């Protein structure tokens, strides 16, 4: 475990993860492993954290067909509470690119946004969502981001940074015809206008 805190190149760390069978280890062991990771000193580098996020969680999250177990949820929340930026870059980006409904993955994203991610990573999630075609399954994620930002805005007068708010409003305006009958879309627009009324003309 002490090797994890030392600079390892990408292939070395991936090889170590493969040797330890981290992607398929039992979930109770996964929780213990994440606890050990959080106790390492110095902290993991961004690259190492990104590799571990992929090795530990990507296969498990993408294969979810029911709510994650309490062990998997504990491991996810502990890891992303400290390494939320690389976690979002690797894992949430992959979830967003997945075709299909992905109901359990969407619920998980919402829960992590609402409860675990650091504020700057919540904004990263918003930018990631706005980079992909908007779909009905992503509307709850945008709602979760907005709700989190309302509770803890980046500054007293702004729920969202102006550049992100402009992109969100532009996306909603462009997508409005495609979501003309969507209750979720209507709720999202109302939430944006209510939460960001001082920023939206």
TrEMBL record:
<dbReference type="Pfam" id="PF11510">
    <property type="entry name" value="FA_FANCE"/>
</dbReference>
<feature type="domain" description="Fanconi Anaemia group E protein C-terminal">
    <location>
        <begin position="9"/>
        <end position="200"/>
    </location>
</feature>
<dbReference type="GO" id="GO:0036297">
    <property type="term" value="P:interstrand cross-link repair"/>
</dbReference>
<dbReference type="InterPro" id="IPR039685">
    <property type="entry name" value="FANCE"/>
</dbReference>
<dbReference type="GO" id="GO:0043240">
    <property type="term" value="C:Fanconi anaemia nuclear complex"/>
</dbReference>
<protein>
    <submittedName>
        <fullName>FANCE protein</fullName>
    </submittedName>
</protein>
<dbReference type="InterPro" id="IPR021025">
    <property type="entry name" value="Fanconi_anaemia_gr_E_prot_C"/>
</dbReference>
